[in-house]
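Quick log. Single chain, no ligands specified.
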Amino acid sequence: MHDSNNNNSDTNGEQEKEGHRPQPVVAKVCGVGTVEAAEAAVLADADIIGMIFAPSPRLIDMETAKAIAQTVESKKKATDASCTVVEASEQTPLALPVDTDDLDAAEYFTECANRVLQRRRAAGRPLLAGVFQNQTAEHIAQVAREVPLDLVQLHGTEAPEMARLIPVPVIKVFHVDGSFSVDASAGAGGDMLKRRCHSLILLDTKVAGTAQQGGRGVSFDWNIARKLADRGIPFLMAGGLTPENVVQAVDVGRPWGVDVSSGIETSRAKDPAKIRAFVENAKRPAATPPCFQE
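-> predicted structure:
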């Protein structure tokens, strides 16, 4: 036993030296509606801050969204000695991979995810995502430019091709209920793995009896997500996540990133202590970490 542990330790050390240590789970703090909550997310080292622009109790107005964007931009810092912070005016748009013919689905979406991570590091701050649901591409594009946003999340029944009309990379939700099948959604006839549409995939619980999806605090079977991870596809996972269960969720589902909203609230307001605990726990190495490499 002792020799085996030493061998594992040596192997892990060699992997870290060779740059093969698994990428920490990406933490997305969503439903942010105040500058104070955004500041708490920045201090907690969240990777993505989400703001809701669709009908929701967490709906944000443009004035507040712009104030959050300015505040987050002012908090930027170089997070790595080898990373140079890039001024917003100098950043180029996040583009999807151009040469995709030789990439399989896992390689393609891993490349997309890596480009998002590269932008996050270059920006030296959390990326800003706007959440929309069944709204026009023209409206979404206008909001994305005015705030400005780094990412757009389509959280309704939008066709994946709509992402091609939006000037920033898109996170596309796929709602999970009892009839959901990874094999069907990710198969030849499904929309999940369509190229040159969305850059990131989000799995979230489908809640029956309501048009408003997301932020409901309802989870789904994380083993369903694991089936997508086993295909080598990076994805975000949402639905009923909290600081208390996110470690287990990551261990079971093996997502590239986790997305939280109601799970970090107290009396329907974002709680800085819960934000900090969620991000810290999400980034804690799990027993079976995601295997998506840069």
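The longest strand covers residues 170-176.
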